[in-house]
Each structure stands twice: as structure tokens, then as C-alpha cells.
Amino acid sequence: MDDRVRNPRSRKWLFILLALLVAAVVVFVAGMWFADRGERSVAAVTESYAEAYEGIDTTKDAPGLLPLYAPDAVLHYAATGRTHTGTGEIEAGLNALLATPDFDLTIERTLVGDDWALVYWTADGMRPDLDRVAQVVGVTSLEVEKGKIAKETWYYDPAKAPF
């Protein structure tokens, strides 16, 4: 018998194996397409947030923070009850914060979840009412949707805050 004659059953298994491989590739590519829609991850948003505050120039950087927020985002100061909704109000709130004389915010660490992050920080600044530099430790929670901050809440002791 000729060794070059192939068994038709081996072709069938080869076809099945090839079909399974193609199906796996299609499922993988489709999964990647649905998972990556150009949205920034929570970790990337948190990293940009931390970098923005670490290198902030208080005379001009509030607009530099605004691209991190969704158009209808909410910025809430739990300690004082102040709430800013939308990028216009958030910009005004950030400008007020950054107007604190000698303001400096240091990010101590971050903790990132699926759609949230916690940012632990220390803030320093001049308290004109006390005529001295004050320091406060706080935490900010970020809720991220579609690669943007949807809600930001600051927790700190307002009696110690320089802002």
C-alpha cells in the first residue's frame, strides 16, 4: 500500500481542530474589542489624578484637572457639606481650594477597585485666620464611570484644614 494515501478520518480531525482554533481566536478578539472601548481604566484615572495634584501649580492648574471629570460629575466635601455638580461648578470649587496660600497636597497612597479608588493625602497651606501653616490628613473617594470621575468625595477634619 502507498504511504502517501491519507486516512480521511485524520483530515476530519484536522478540520475540527482548525475550526476550534479559529473560533477561539474570534472569541478572544471579540472579547478584547468589547473590553477596550478607549476608556481609561480606574487605575489610569487615579494615577493621572495623583500626578495632577503632586505637580500642581496653584495659579493655573484647575483647568488641567477638569479633563478627568465626566461633564455631570459631582464633587462633594463630606466634612463641610459643600457639593459642586458639573465641570463648571467643579472648576470653581477647585479654584477656591487652590487659592489657599502655600497650598500643597501630597498623595500618600492609593487603593484601586473595579470602578472606585481611594486616595489618601496630606494637605498643607496657610490658614489666614490662624496666621500659620496648617496640615490635614484626609482621604478622597473616586467613583469612575466610562474612564472619567463621576463622583469625588473628600473626607477630612475641617477644623484642621487649611482650606
Layout: helices, strands, pairs:
Layout lengths: L7 H28 L6 H13 L7 H4 L3 E9 L4 E4 H13 L5 E9 L3 E12 L4 E14 L2 E9 L7
What does this structure look like?
Strands 2-1-6-5-4-3 form a six-stranded mixed beta sheet. The model has no long low-confidence stretch (mean pLDDT 85). It is elongated. It is built from four helices and six strands. It folds into two domains: 1-36; 42-156, Nuclear Transport Factor 2, Chain: A (Roll). It has 163 residues and is an alpha+beta fold.
- N-end to C-end Cα span: 93 Å
| CATH top level class name of the largest domain | Alpha Beta
Q: Please report the number of helical segments.
A: 4
Question: Strand percentage, roughly?
Answer: 25-35%
Number of domains: 2
Using the 3D structure, state the CATH architecture of the largest domain.
Roll
**What is the average per-residue confidence, as pLDDT, rounded to a whole number?**
85
Notable features of this structure?
single chain, 6-stranded mixed sheet, Nuclear Transport Factor 2, Chain: A, 163 residues, elongated, 36% helix, 6 strands
Describe what is shown at a glance:
With 163 residues, this protein is an alpha+beta fold. The protein has helices at 8-35, 42-54, 62-65, 86-98, and strands at 69-77, 82-85, 104-112, 116-127, 132-145, 148-156.
